[in-house]
Design brief:
This protein has about 280 residues and is an alpha+beta fold. The chain contains two helices and 13 strands. It is globular, with a radius of gyration of 25 Å.
Length: about 280
């Protein structure tokens, strides 16, 4: 009798534990969803003088239209933000290239014109006046892309947070027009989609996960000795701290198909370029 009663008590306690656990889990899940999954924190982070530094690396892989590798380029730089005056700056920007797909990139050449290059992020960064001290060579477009890609990531991370709902794609309005890229070319966006897809943890920070994609974009570039025209698509993911609103990590990928005209060559040629961008917090 005592054994049977003990078994009944143990079974009752076990069932009670299961019910309590499920109840607690349900309450915790509800709190979690209400706190982190009901809406995104709004606005941009404050520039309070606390500096945040990022390493940005962009790798370009070139192939002909038969898929044969023709060369690769990498540009990397350190990006610092958070100063009270709102300025950001770039340091330690290096550009390197290689004709071997499998070999590692060399250290590359330091881009001295980018050392301590400062500006306030805004649409004024599409003005040619901003780049008046940049060298007039085709290679400097890689440095400009660092700046423009970081601007884009900032916009995707912060400017539409009040419009994003969990797992619902959002189309940025009013983008179907052509704009000038600091007088070196023109770019036309077709459509950009953003999607808040959930939460994750990066650098011990709970982060909102924001995905973006853009297809059927058209570009034309005209620089001394080189002219190109083609189409691009790009996509990626940004992790934004819920607590600080700072970007903790980002990845971006793109594919471009272009017809290229080089002044010293008789015929144009076709080129496919894939680009991979990685952004990580240094501190």
């Amino acid at each position: 009798m005592r054994t049977k009663l003990t078994l009944i008590m143990i079974g009752t306690l076990a069932l009670t534990g299961i019910f309590l656990t499920e109840k607690c889990l349900g309450q915790n899940r509800a709190k979690l969803m209400k706190r982190y999954l009901s809406s995104l924190p709004g606005g941009r982070p404050e520039n309070d003088g606390t500096l945040k530094r990022y390493l940005m690396i962009a790798t370009y892989i070139n192939r002909d239209f038969d898929g044969n590798f023709t060369g690769k380029t990498r540009i990397s730089g350190e990006y610092t933000k958070g100063s009270e005056d709102g300025y950001v700056k770039w340091n330690n920007v290096f550009l390197s290239g290689s004709n071997s797909y499998s070999e590692s990139f060399p250290v590359g050449e330091r881009q001295d014109f980018m050392e301590n290059f400062r500006y306030i992020p805004s649409d004024k960064m599409l003005s040619s006046e901003v780049f008046r001290d940049f060298p007039a060579t085709p290679e400097n477009v890689f440095a400009r892309n660092l700046i423009w890609d970081m601007l884009s990531l900032n916009i995707f991370a912060w400017d539409f947070s009040d419009s994003l709902k969990l797992n619902e794609p959002y189309s940025i309005p009013g983008l179907n027009f052509q704009f000038d890229m600091a007088e070196i070319g023109k770019y036309t966006h077709n459509k950009i989609l953003l999607c808040w897809s959930g939460i994750s943890v990066i650098n011990n920070e709970i982060c909102s996960v924001i995905e973006f994609s853009a297809t059927d974009n058209f570009l034309e570039i005209a620089m001394p000795g080189v002219r190109t025209k083609g189409a691009e698509q790009y996509w990626g993911t940004i992790w934004v701290s819920v607590r600080t609103r700072e970007i903790e990590q980002a990845f971006m990928y793109s594919g471009t198909a272009q017809e290229i005209e080089v002044e010293s060559m008789n015929n144009t040629f076709l080129l496919k370029t894939s680009r991979e961008i990685e952004v990580r917090r240094i501190y």
